[in-house]
Design goal:
The protein folds into two domains: 225 residues, Uridine Diphospho-n-acetylenolpyruvylglucosamine Reductase, domain 3, CATH 3.30.465.10; 150 residues, Beta-grasp domain (Ubiquitin-like (UB roll)), CATH 3.10.20.30. It is an alpha+beta fold and 472 residues long. It is globular and about 70 Å long. The protein is 32% helix and 20% strand. The chain has a five-stranded antiparallel β-sheet. Strand 6 and strand 7 form a beta hairpin.
Length: 472
């Protein structure tokens, strides 16, 4: 694990650490990818983590006077998915963000982090490529702007220097004549990596004649690529079924996939054509936003993280304690600086209600509430809890009275082996704060990051509906 954990409150402080530590340091905000690699021992070169999650003013989505949208380095996937601005003016990105992981992961993972991870299967790179994003990179020596097409040099490789950080993502907002769509094909509806993904943005006249086309493909090459032949073919043509079929064939021909555990190269190539046809038909028929709610469930009731008055550094043998509010009481942890929040709570806090099911953000058994947001505690570095508010399943009951969802789980018999239950209870409690009367579909959305191995979902959903009836 890391040797040094730095929580900074200014961008300049982060840049100072990068200039000092260079290849041994990494900027983190959500750390949803990096912490898993460190836990598994596959990233032993990183000694210093620079946590920028407490830097104010970096979690905004804005539209400037030139009609360009700007996304700060702390903007999370859930912020993008629930942004009215992105839903109306950059829909493919909002949709891609909604397709990432689960609500708990989307509450932590940032767009900037997703771009820098640089996997060709990452969902947000594809729409940002189609949108023509410009990335602003900053170091102590100044800033430079890089077109997203030029940012990637290969699988998990970018032009980002060891002393630079990504401070802004900008792209032109879609005009009224432009329509866009994002489609992801994966093995599951949630918590799944793309087998193939595709973004398409077309500028159309009133007769569906194409004036410009951007079609980008993910997980079919070492980096995200443009389907250049399809883009050129569509220019000046009307979106008839025949034109769409030919464009889809050209997209399929552009794909250069590999075979892996998720699918063969031949299958990926075929699916590329299928989702290209689906995407173009949805644009032609005005159905590009079909299937995505305009206000998706986020399992979050607070937008801003807890602030700190000054930066703090936890060294390998630090005497500085992690001080946080856990279940309404101040807790001081003199150990656990190099653990995940899950292990800090269980091993040092003796709060064993939070379970470790997978330790890689797949099952949701470790879900807790961090500063008002449901998160997977196995993916949160323990020092991130310093100065924060944490609620575990033990903190749901108040004054010796069970939380309404706890009572409803008992009444509905929504417990089988019980191992997953703490995570479901915590997710349900946040859901009812966010949406006191959720629909059945919203309940299902909320539980997309919680896995029940006993297949008890029907009773679990029924329990939440009972809690709603009681005014939970």
């Amino acid at each position: 694990m890391w040797k040094r954990y730095c929580i900074v409150t200014q961008i300049d402080e982060a840049l100072d650490w990068l200039a000092k530590e260079r290849e041994k340091a990494r900027i983190i905000a959500g750390a949803t990818d990096l912490i898993l690699e460190m836990e598994k021992g596959t990233r032993q070169d990183v000694e210093t983590l620079i946590d920028i999650s407490r830097v104010s003013g970096q979690d905004t989505i804005s539209l400037d006077t030139d009609e360009w949208i700007h996304i700060g380095p702390l903007v999370t996937h859930n912020q993008c998915a629930s942004s009215p601005l992105l839903y109306e003016r950059a829909y493919p990105l909002a949709r891609a963000c909604w397709e990432v992981g689960s609500p708990q992961i989307r509450n932590r993972g940032t767009i900037a982090g997703n771009l820098i991870t640089a996997s060709p299967a990452n969902d947000t790179i594809t729409p940002l490529m189609a949108l023509g994003a410009i990335l602003t990179l900053r170091s102590r020596h100044g800033e430079r702007k890089v077109a997203i097409e030029d940012f990637y040099t290969g699988v998990r490789r970018t032009v980002l220097k060891s002393d630079e950080m990504l401070v802004d993502i900008a792209f032109p907002a879609l005009r009224p004549s432009q329509k866009g769509v994002f489609i992801k094909y994966a093995l599951r509806k949630a918590q799944a990596i793309s087998i193939v993904n595709l973004a398409a943005i077309l500028d159309l006249d009133g007769e569906n004649r194409v004036h410009s086309a951007q079609i980008t493909l993910g997980a079919v090459a070492p980096t995200i690529i443009h389907a250049l032949s399809a883009e050129e073919f569509l220019l000046g043509k009307t979106l008839t079924p025949e034109v769409i079929a030919e464009a889809a064939e050209r997209c399929m021909a552009e794909a250069r996939p590999i075979s892996d555990v998720r699918g063969s190269a031949r299958f990926r190539k075929k699916i590329t054509g299928v989702i290209a046809k689906r995407a173009l038909h949805s644009i032609a028929e005005g159905r590009e936003k079909e299937g995505m709610p305009s206000s998706p469930i986020t399992l979050s009731t607070r937008k801003n993280p807890s602030s700190l008055e000054k930066s703090i550094v936890f060294e390998e043998n630090s005497n500085i304690p992690i001080i946080c509010n856990v279940n309404g009481q101040q807790r001081i942890f003199h150990s656990g600086h190099r653990k995940t929040l899950l292990r800090l709570l269980r091993e040092d806090g003796l709060l064993i209600g939070t379970k470790e099911g997978c330790a890689e953000g797949e099952c949701g058994a470790c879900t807790v509430i961090l500063d008002g947001m449901a998160v997977m505690s196995c993916m949160v570095p323990a020092p991130r809890a310093h100065g924060a508010e944490v609620i575990t399943v033990e903190g749901l009951a108040e004054n010796n009275t069970l939380h309404p969802v706890q009572e409803a789980f008992i009444e509905a018999g929504a417990v089988q082996c019980g191992y997953c239950t703490p995570g479901f209870l915590v997710s349900a409690a946040v859901l009812l704060k966010e949406s006191p009367r959720p629909s059945r579909n919203e309940i299902v959305q909320a539980f997309s990051g919680n896995l029940c191995r006993c297949t008890g979902y029907y009773k679990i959903v029924e329990a939440v509906e009972k809690a709603v009836e009681k005014g939970g």
